[in-house]
Design a protein that fits this description.
The protein is mostly helical. It is 44% helix and 0% strand. It contains four helices and no strands. The radius of gyration is 13 Å and the shape is globular.
Length: 90
Amino acid sequence: MSTAIITPWAAVGDMSWRQHGACAVSTNPDLWFPEGNHKSERLAKVVCHNCPVKIPCLRWALNNKEKWGVWGGTTERERRRMQKSIRDQI
């Protein structure tokens, strides 16, 4: 069973919130897709911390089961744990 957390900016395919994100000004995709580089992962989380669209970003990643990169201040592993926790509560 799949559980989705739907909110206005988090519909499948709707990524209009991205233009308001702290990541919108970053020109280095390695920061958001660190592939095991924990230093880049931590830096991305710092940028995400005060981002005005952190929650919609995280919701989008959860709704779309995003498997790569830092989204909403979380890593792939953290999002998998969140999804499991949500499933376990149902």
